[in-house]
Each structure stands twice: as C-alpha cells, then as structure tokens.
Design brief:
Layout (H helix, E strand, L loop, with lengths): L14 E3 L16 E3 L4 E3 L5 E3 L4 H7 L1 E7 L3 E5 L3 E5 L2 E7 L5 E2 L9 E2 L8 H8 L6 H5 L4 E7 L5 E11 L3 E11 L4 E9 L3 H13 L2 E2 L16 H13 L5 E4 L5 E5 L4 H21 L10 E6 L2 H8 L8 E3 L4 E5 L6 H20 L7 H12 L21 H9 L6 H4 L4 H6 L7 H18 L15 H30 L8 H13 L4 H16 L4 H15 L1
C-alpha cells in the first residue's frame, strides 16, 4: 500500500455509531507552551490535546507548521439519526509571499515566470488544504463571527473570524480562524470544531489564542538536507525536526541505511524493528541488486500506537503501515501490545516499496510487481539466522486462501492483462473481491516466479525461460528510467545555460530548478512507454497461454 496522502481527511476520524449525544468535555488551557522560534510565535494549546507530526512535504507544499487534535472525541449528530465521534482539531500555517519560481508553462522547461508577490490569506489556505469541506465559499459572505481585530496583548493584534462549513460525512463545523502578521510572513491558525459545541469550545480557543506571543526568530536553523547528503548533516537536521514535536526522538541504526524517528518509548520493540528492517533490506539487495550503491538513508517513522499512525497518515482504521513517496517515509507503529507478527509482515511489504522507490530513482513499477513482491517479502519467516520464504502472511493479510478460491471459481484476471494494468486498473479490478483480488493474484504470480527461480517449483509446470521474467523486467525498467531522467536533467542544464548561467538566476529560481533536476519527474505518458518496454523485454518471449495454464496448475495442485 502506497500512502501518498497529503491533505487532512476528516472522514478518517469519523465513526458512525448509534447512541445519544454526550455534552462536550470541559476545555482548559494546558500548562505547557508550544514554541516555534523559526516561525516566531509561542502559545499554550488546550489541555489534553495531542500533537500530530507534520511531514516535511506538508511544511513545504502548504506551509503547515502545526497539527493537533483533542485526545477526547465528541459525539456528533450524523444524517439518519445516527451519532458519530469526532475530534476537534487545530492547524497552523505559515503564509508568506511566493518567491519568483521557475515554471514549466505550456509543458516547456524553457519558460520562466514569477508569481505575484502577495501573501495568501487564511481563507485561501483553507480552500487549498480543506478542499473536501462544502459550503465554505458560501459562508465567506456570512461569517459565523467577525471579522474583527482583537488586541490580545500589548504588542499583538489578531485578525479573528469564524466561518461555517459542512463536512461531507454529515458534520456541521465552525472554522475559527486567527491571523497574526509578522514582518516576514503571516501565521494563521484554524480550529475545526463541531458547530453544536462551538459556544463552549470557542471560549476556550480564545483563551488559548490570547496566550500567543511573538518570539525572536531563530536564525541558526540547520539547513534542510536530504537522505543522500552527508550522514552527520542529515542526522543533525532530522534531530532538529524531531525536537519540534513533543514526545518524538531519533534512534540511529548501526548500518546507517535507516534512521528511526519515533514517539514509542519501547526500546525492546524498536530493536526488533531495526532487526527486521535490516534483514529485509539484505534480502532486497541480494534479489534486486542496485546498479549503483544506494546511499540514501531511509526514514522510518514509528508511531507509539495505531491511532497515532492513522492520525498522521489520514488513513482508515485498517491501516497498519505504509510508505509515503512524498515524504519518503516508511510509517509504522509500536505493535508490541497488538499483533506483532502482522505488523512485521506489513513492515517488510512496505519497506520493499521504499527500496523500489530508490532502486528506480524515485519512480515505480507495475502493481503486479510492486505489490506482489511486497507480499512475497511480507510472508518471510525471519525468526532464524537465515530468512525463509513462506506461502502465508499472518492474520488477515494472508493471500493463500484468496487465490485458491479465485482460481476454483474461475474469478481471476488473465495474466496477460494483469501484468499490463495501470495503477488505477489494478486497484479497482474485480469488484466482487473489493480490490483484494489483485493482491491475491499478484502475490501468487510472484510466488510462482520467485520459488521457481529457487528451484522449488515442479518441472511439470516450470519452464526455464520463466526464470528470466523478473530479472529482465527490472533490468529494462531501471535502464529506461535512467535514460528518461538523464534527458530531463540535461534539458534543465540547457535551461540554466540559456538563461546566462547560474549567476544570472535568482537564488530561488536556481534552487527550484536544481530541485526539479534532482527529482526529474517523469510524465505519465513516458512512464507508460517505459513500462511497455520493460514488459515487452520480459514477458514478450513467453507463450502467455501456456504460462497461464502452468500458473493455474501450480495454484491448484502445488501451492
């Protein structure tokens, strides 16, 4: 499962249950101060509110500085005379003038434009970040309260306005918004509260905002570095980032292939996570050796519990871990008190996605390959000195019975179609299995190929040319991605040269071009061309009708 979730999803914390509404919990201001010396403010949040880590991607893309929610859920009315649970939340954003930016206007890398130098308002931020809320634009002309300037201290004046909006899941909300202006930027706060509890909460929110004061800006912040920079610099940067969120810390891994950021205090469990990660990576590197050494340090965020993971990732209740390509993080949780084996299976599955991300230079493969291989590693038994593949993952993750039933009922996708599916087709395939069918079938396909390569499949269904499918696929996938990315990077060098060289560009323009050059994003069309070439070079020499019959026999009689 890839977790490319970047926007707050209120639905992730809604649970429809029958019952009667309880009154709102009494709200008080906490004793502890939250300080952000980089943004220039401090304040005292409400008592019993928890910090949710903000990913670096969210900081950069939307200027998010802070996210919190109440540890206690409120009962709210939902459509159909139902009652749901919902946690009030707080977000803070840094709103600055856009710098001149390099643009790819019209699809060309040779066009450069500058954005209008105007600070976005909190209303603009809300529309960008909380796009799933309805009736917000309508409420702009008729605010619930304000707008009003409020002098909250001798030196501080805040713009205060409260709007109403409607969450698609059926909750009427108020958005209590506070904006403070600093010379360098504005800082905006948005409190999301059920309208039925607004009066009680807004009094407490106002008391919290009255504690907000200015701080002297920290000018010695460590410059952002990425995982392929000097390790000591990367470590120092990540430690500084972790210190911004109370309760989080950095744990180093001896091999320096991973760096753990965690809110768990269970050192024994953390040690077992590191052992599983190291064994998994060893397997990946043997089975899929990189053309060049991967020197990127993989970030692993280990949340203290499953609820914290789901709040951070904005995921559903069934998620036990994910890889987020936007933040490049592998996100897990401390499962020492729940299902440790299932959590470790998810860990090896998602860690393979992270490895593939760097193996293919921040690109990806077909889902049959990516998800099928992830499940193959997820089923590994790593308790002994030598990891061993098995045909079963623990708990509800197991694919064995699922593929047996699919084949028995002839409810499977032709292999020639499965290996060419786009991501959208793969995840949406086979409605009768609600999307799980693709996982089942892809796992069985990979298991057949990988075990055959190990000499563990009967010769009655195994042909020697099958052993070349996965190696040829990865070989050509890597080569084609490398070629395409080199062309993009060379094109950006030409853009810089045509502009008169690096000295002729503004620092912001140069930084953005170099960042774009580093990532070298590949278009969907080009990605499809790469996938088609890799498929042709790996599956093109295989008689697909014969292969499918061999695979079916393997599943029926040998799996």
């Amino acid at each position: 499962m890839l977790g490319s979730r970047t926007l707050p999803t209120i639905a992730a914390i809604l649970m429809a249950i029958l019952g009667l509404s309880n009154p709102a919990f009494a709200q008080k201001i906490g004793r502890d101060w939250h300080e952000d010396a980089v943004a220039g403010f401090k304040f005292r949040p409400l008592k019993d509110w928890a910090f949710i880590p903000v990913s670096q991607g969210d900081r950069e893309r939307m200027g998010k500085l802070l996210e919190m929610n109440s540890e206690k859920a409120l009962n709210v009315k939902l459509p159909g005379n139902q009652i749901g649970q919902w946690k009030p939340s707080l977000y803070a954003f840094q709103m600055r003038e856009p710098s001149g930016a390099a643009s790819t206007g019209g699809g060309s890398l040779r066009n450069r434009v500058s954005e209008e130098k105007k600070r976005p308002t909190i209303e603009v931020i809300i529309e960008r970040v909380f796009g799933n809320l309805r009736d917000f634009k309508k409420g702009l002309s008729d605010p619930y309260f304000g707008p009003k300037e409020e002098k909250l201290s001798k030196k501080a004046v805040r713009q205060h306005v409260t709007y109403t909006a409607f969450d698609p899941n059926g909750v009427d909300l108020v958005l209590d918004c506070w904006t403070i202006s600093l010379p360098e930027w504005d800082v905006g706060f948005v409190w999301l509260i059920p309208e039925s509890d607004a009066k009680k909460y807004l009094k407490a929110v106002k008391k919290s905002m009255r504690t907000l004061t200015f701080m002297e800006l920290k000018t010695d912040a460590i410059e952002k570095v990425t995982g392929d920079d000097n390790y000591s610099s990367f470590l120092a940067y990540q430690k500084e980032q972790a210190q911004k969120i109370p309760g989080w810390r950095i744990v180093e891994v001896p091999s320096k292939r991973f760096l753990i950021i965690t809110s768990s205090g269970n050192d024994r469990f953390i040690k077992s996570v590191i052992e599983r990660l190291e064994k998994s990576r060893d397997l990946y590197e043997v089975d899929f050796p990189p053309k060049e050494e991967i020197n990127f340090v993989s970030m692993v965020r280990l949340c203290k519990d499953r609820e914290e993971l789901q709040s951070y990732g904005k995921t559903g209740s069934g998620t036990a871990g994910f890889f987020n390509p936007n933040s490049r993080e592998l996100v897990l949780y401390d499962a020492s008190q729940t299902n440790k084996k299932e959590s470790f299976a998810v860990m090896s599955h998602e860690a393979f996605h992270q490895y593939c991300f760097f193996l293919f230079d921040e690109a990806n493969a077909h889902r049959w390959f990516d998800e099928g291989q992830g499940d193959y590693y997820g089923a590994y038994n790593m308790d002994g000195k030598k990891p061993k593949p098995t045909a079963h993952m623990p708990g509800g993750l197991d694919r064995y019975q699922g593929i047996k039933e699919m084949v028995r009922n002839e409810n499977y996708v032709p292999i020639s179609k499965l290996i060419r599916m786009t991501h959208e087709q793969w995840y949406g395939n086979n409605d009768s299995y609600h999307g799980v069918a693709s996982y089942n079938q892809s796992w069985s396909l990979v298991y057949f190929l990988r075990e055959g390569m190990r000499g563990k499949v009967s010769r009655k269904v195994w042909k020697k040319e099958y052993a070349d499918i996965i190696p040829n696929y990865t070989k050509h996938l890597f080569a084609e991605y490398a070629k395409a990315k080199k062309a993009i990077r060379d094109d950006i060098d030409k853009v810089i040269e045509k502009a008169g060289g690096e000295s002729a560009l503004t620092p912001d323009d140069l930084m953005r071009l170099r960042e774009q050059q580093k990532k070298a994003p590949i278009s969907d069309g080009e990605k499809m061309n790469i996938w088609n070439k890799a498929t042709a070079e790996s599956w093109g020499k295989i008689d697909m009708d014969v292969f499918e019959e061999d695979w079916l026999t393997f599943v029926k009689k040998h799996l």
